[in-house]
Design goal:
The structure holds two protein chains of two kinds. Chain A is built from three helices and nine strands. By secondary structure, chain A is mainly β. Chain A has one domain. In chain A, strands 1, 2, 3, 4, 5, 6, 7, 8 and 9 form a nine-stranded antiparallel beta sheet that branches. In chain A, strand 3 and strand 4 form a beta hairpin. By secondary structure, chain B is mostly beta strands. Chain B has one domain. Chain B has three helices and nine strands, in the order αβββββαββββα. In chain B, strands 1-2-3-5-6-7-8-9 form an eight-stranded antiparallel β-barrel. Classes of the chains: A mainly beta, B mainly beta.
Chain lengths: 206, 222
């Protein structure tokens, strides 16, 4: 009984900091996209992670984040195109960490070297053209990468992917079709305590 | 000391480098928005409803003069009055009148959205030094039935310590971005209506080049 009480108290203590400090948390990115030529073609997007410390990242990222981390989308296939609304399927997404070659928009391959710390797939992605501005949204499931284990299995699925899109020359670089500025975020902020199982917690008090 | 040298060089570099086709300096921001009476996820925008956006900048040009290592940059957009909008083949298109934007730099990293705005935490976005202030000349927001939205707005610059970077006060700045309602906006705090990811463009009075701040910093790496 005493042990149960201690465990309950410990569980409360561990969960409280996560609740109290549960702030907004996402991977923020800014990049460039190449659009498919038509239905059946695929979209590619290369970007740099832009979190500067103001917004917490779902996984701790270290060093010069903007220089070390890149987010890449490949193989996102255009399934339907109504003119104002485009639906995509398939496609992979990967978050890379790289201390070697700096990512350079002049060479898209420099975004996908390094270590893939998170890799995943799109459940769905929709792009809408409002006329003067475009936006997109989809769902990402993380399925691999060297740091996947830092996210509890239940939290690896169903991340929101939202993006502001512009083809303006003020933000779109030569050689690309659009600027993509968005974020990938879990349903709820990832807290350290979430990766512990109840069994792991109990073992701390045995 | 090295940091001071870096900033000094960055300023010289930005001024001395050849001008790009358009001298635009950029700020990227993320945040949340609410409208009095609610908006999206089944709630229409009614005439007279007022839209508010509070956001944090996570990337900005060095010409804003902000130390990215010790300063928080926050954005407060307010007093945008809805015309009630109309349905355009499943897309709700809303035009707003009025509206102001204020951008602050703050050595205290304290921004917090809280829940059920307006709330007392709004001051965490408006403390610090006023970096840029402007008045909207137009602002338009569109949202489709799935919760995907986008907005654009033109701004006259009226003040702030960085106002001198504008090439002139009229149509000095432009902002656009994505706006997302639940269930797409998974981390939307209770009481907020939209998740925002946006860009602020300011027409610069000085020549700029296409080098990002990271590109400048990379010049100093071994």
């Amino acid at each position: 009984m005493k042990n149960l009480l201690l465990m309950s108290l410990a569980a409360l203590v561990i969960s409280l900091p996560g609740t109290a400090t549960a702030q907004s948390q996402w991977f923020d990115f800014n990049g460039q996209a190449l659009l498919p030529g038509g239905v059946g073609g695929t979209l590619t997007m290369v970007s740099k992670i832009t979190n500067n410390g103001s917004i917490e990242t779902p996984l701790p990222l270290t060093g010069d984040v903007n220089a070390r981390y890149t987010l890449v989308i490949e193989g996102l296939e255009l399934i339907t195109d109504s003119g104002t609304q485009q639906d995509f399927a398939g496609g992979t997404i990967a978050l890379y960490e790289d201390d070697g070659t700096l990512a350079d928009f002049g060479d898209a391959a420099t975004f996908s070297d390094g270590t893939a710390i998170l890799t995943g797939t799109f459940d769905q992605f929709r792009r809408v053209d409002f006329g003067s501005v475009q936006s997109g949204a989809g769902t990402v499931n993380w399925t691999g990468g060297t740091r996947l284990g830092e996210i509890a299995p239940a939290d690896q699925l169903g991340w929101a992917f939202v993006v502001s899109i512009s083809s303006s020359t003020t933000v779109t670089l030569d050689g690309y079709d659009e600027n993509w500025n968005g974020k990938v975020e879990p349903s709820d902020p990832i807290v350290d305590g979430e990766v512990r199982t109840w069994g792991q917690l109990k073992r701390n008090y045995q | 000391m090295r940091l001071h040298a870096l900033f000094a060089f960055a300023l010289v570099f930005a001024v001395a480098a050849p001008a790009s086709a358009q001298n635009v300096i950029l700020m990227d921001y993320s945040g949340f928005s609410y409208e009095t009476g609610g908006l999206g996820d089944g709630a229409p925008s009614d005439p007279g409803d007022v839209l508010v956006i509070t956001a944090v900048a996570d990337q900005y040009d060095e010409l804003f003069g902000v130390d990215p290592l010790s300063q928080e940059v926050t954005i407060y957009i307010y007093d945008l009055v809805s015309d009630g909008g109309f349905d355009d083949n499943g897309i709700e298109r809303i035009a707003y009148t009025g509206g102001r934007i204020e951008v602050y730099e703050d050595p205290v990293l304290n921004h917090e959205w809280g829940t059920n705005p307006p709330n007392g935490l709004l001051t965490t976005f408006t403390d610090g030094q006023l970096l840029f202030e402007g008045e909207f000349t137009d602002f338009n927001l569109s949202i489709d039935g799935f919760g995907i939205g986008g907005y654009t707005g033109n701004i006259d610059g009226v003040g702030g310590t960085a106002a001198q970077i504008c090439d002139n006060e009229a149509d000095c700045a432009y902002t656009f971005g994505g706006a997302f309602t639940k269930p797409l906006a998974t981390q939307l705090p209770e009481g907020y209506d939209l998740q925002i990811t946006g860009t602020l463009e300011v027409d610069a009075a000085v020549d700029t080049d296409e080098s990002s701040f990271s590109a400048v910093k990379s010049l100093f790496r071994n």
